Amino acid sequence: MAWHSLDTCAVGQTPLPELSVVPSAASLQGSPVRPQGHIVHNWKARWFILRQNTLLYYKLDGGRKVTPPKGRILLDGCTITCPCLEYENRPLLIKLKTQTSTEYFLEACSREERDAWAFEITGAIHAGQPGKVQQLHVLRNSFKLPPHISLHRIVDKMHDSSSGIRPSPNMEQGSTYKKTFIGSSLVDWLISNNFSANRLEAVTLASMLMEENFLRPVGVRSMGAIRSGDLAEQFLDDSTALYTFAESYKKKISSKEEMSLSTMELSGTVVKQGYLAKQGHKRKNWKVRRFVLRKDPAFLHYYDPSKEENRPVGGFSLRGSLVSALEDNGVPTGVKGNVQGNLFKVITKDDTHYYIQASSKAERAEWIEAIKKLT
């Protein structure tokens, strides 16, 4: 993969090349990339090889690497930033900062290559900490949004003139759309600002922002995705999908959206809370809600994370309710989206059916066990 690098501390930056399979000998090779020079801050193509705790880079001559290495980056004590958004016109950067505070900026030719390199380099940095490496592998595919996330806070941050998302004209299929941004850039921004731990979480969070009318799709590519019933597939982590801010993102909550709840319902002790996706009763679409499970009395309430006030938008008593997991062969035809494997159902005493989707089978099992104790 081709990489570019830029040096901001009197040490040249180096771009990375194409990514190949990592051999068992713990070396990783890439195709040519362009790094930035030590003195003149231009970008030059370099061939990179990752070996244990060292990242080597080579000059190129006729598409072949020239030995010996042009330089090396010792990874012990390094910190890595990915995505790195310090250069507005270079969205595919990785930033490495060594123990001596030397900074290297490495630029990939695609988001996939950038993330693959960042993952392997992070593993090399923590190679002496097996627990950290295992945590890294779990985190790469984990899905767990923080329990008290505020969509209003995220949107306000996105509108910040210095550190927010900067809409610009973008073209799709011959048409130019003003004041838009691409899907993969928003995903990078959410991760960079610590609103999400990985791309799966960021995509789901972006889908929530769109579902709650903070964002809207623009153009054929992104408009086509919202027809999907699966929340995680409505927003596209793609450099060709365009989005913009919805004009009504600061709209006030209407009084009719409030629900009348007795003080008794909310007086119970909280035993579990977290984010789950819930299917609506009318439109059958999926929305992420913060669920709070209480005992004495036993109630399950759900909250809209786009609303600043801490009042549930729905809830029900668990007395006399039934809860069960729905496996691949048990998903009702009325349930939309790709939900097999982590879906469960709660049937209340008055025969109301709630379909709820967890982020994993383990999380689903935890919720079912907690709810069963209170039914």
TrEMBL record:
UniProt superkingdom: Eukaryota
Task: List the molecular function annotations (GO) for this entry.
Answer: phosphatidylinositol-3,4-bisphosphate binding; phosphatidylinositol-3,5-bisphosphate binding; phosphatidylinositol-3-phosphate binding
Give residue ranges for domain PH: 25-126, 269-375
InterPro entries xrefs: DEP_dom (IPR000591), PH-like_dom_sf (IPR011993), PH_domain (IPR001849), Pleckstrin (IPR037370), PLEK2_DEP (IPR037369), WH-like_DNA-bd_sf (IPR036388), WH_DNA-bd_sf (IPR036390)
Location(s), subcellular: Cell projection, Lamellipodium membrane; Cytoplasm, Cytoskeleton
Question: Does the record's keyword annotation contain Amino-acid biosynthesis?
Answer: no
Any one Gene Ontology BP term: intracellular signal transduction
Q: What is its main location?
A: membrane
Q: Which residues form the DEP domain?
A: 161-247
SMART domains for the chain: DEP, PH
Show the PROSITE patterns listed in the entry: DEP, PH_DOMAIN
Keyword list (alphabetical) reads: Acetylation, Cell membrane, Cell projection, Cytoplasm, Cytoskeleton, Membrane, Phosphoprotein, Repeat
Q: Does the keyword Acetylation apply?
A: yes
Q: Its GO CC terms? A: cytoskeleton; lamellipodium membrane; plasma membrane
- Tell me any Pfam family this protein matches: DEP
Q: How does it sit in the membrane?
A: Peripheral membrane protein
PANTHER family xrefs = PLECKSTRIN, PLECKSTRIN-2
Q: What is this protein called?
A: Pleckstrin-2
